[in-house]
Amino acid sequence: MRFHKLRQKFEPLLRRGFHLYFRFSRGATLGAFGMVIDGQGRIFLIKHSYVSGWHLPGGGVETGETLLTALARELKEEGNIRLTAEPKLHGVFHNVRISRRDHVALYIVRDFVQDAPPTPDHEIIAHGFFAPDELPEDTGRATRARIAEVLNGVPLSELW
Length: 160
Fold this sequence. Notes:
Elements: H1 2-25, E1 29-36, E2 43-48, E3 54-55, E4 58-60, H2 67-79, E5 82-83, E6 88-94, E7 102-109, E8 112-113, E9 124-130, H3 141-152
Parallel strand pairs: 1-7
Antiparallel strand pairs: 1-4, 2-3, 2-9, 5-8, 6-7
């Protein structure tokens, strides 16, 4: 309980700190995220140590990386997931909750291998595959919106 209260207090400060760092170090930011769907139709989600809720795996595209290279790196780091075929681009979204300069590309990943579950670490504290109708209660709003677009035919939004 104590950790939860500390996180609630410091999470907004961390977000502002990251925002300031990215604002002055980069003109615009770009992220590559994956909706990894297994053969049973379950979706892979992760839980970060520094942000509340469950989210799709992914992260920032580094200098010199392509979107697909960044996606492959992030999936390996966060989920021990290796792509076995090129994923399908679902959309590119403006992530105004992070910054007016942030954009996110979301790929649908159906062809992959996960040789072993990832080991929780300082960044990713939990992970799992979840049926779309059994998502954890604290699954993030943007994650739920993207799942609804992909699986339920909800119209695509421009905003993350």
